Amino acid sequence: MITKTILLVxxxxxxxxxxxxxxxxxxxxxRVDVARDGQQALDYLFREGEFTHREGAELPAVVMLDINLPxxxxxxxxxxxxxxxxxxxxxxxxxxxSDDEQDRLQSYENGANSFVRKPVDFAEFAETVARxxxxxxxxxxxxxxx
Length: 146
Hints:
alpha/beta
């Protein structure tokens, strides 16, 4: 059985730590790989740069993608993922502190599967991340491979 992986794309060390802790608290034993900027996320997904020899042939089950990232924004990453046949159907959840309506609109226009605001309160944040992890790893039925 293939273990489903989450790719967390987050440049804020505090939010990264809180997200990882929330997933562990939800008893999700799945591997979580972390990219800390937009270019690193693309390199990971397309096996380029430092990830040329990344183990495992599978794409992650879901990408949790922040919008405000160094090098390439989350919206630029999302746009690139949707234009490539290998990642066109990859589930992408925008997980951001932005409450800008334009960010939400652009996220959906660029093909995001979901847009989730990071709650400020830790307990709410943990609950939100846990629900996301459970949904995308245990509940969601991904498309069959072609």
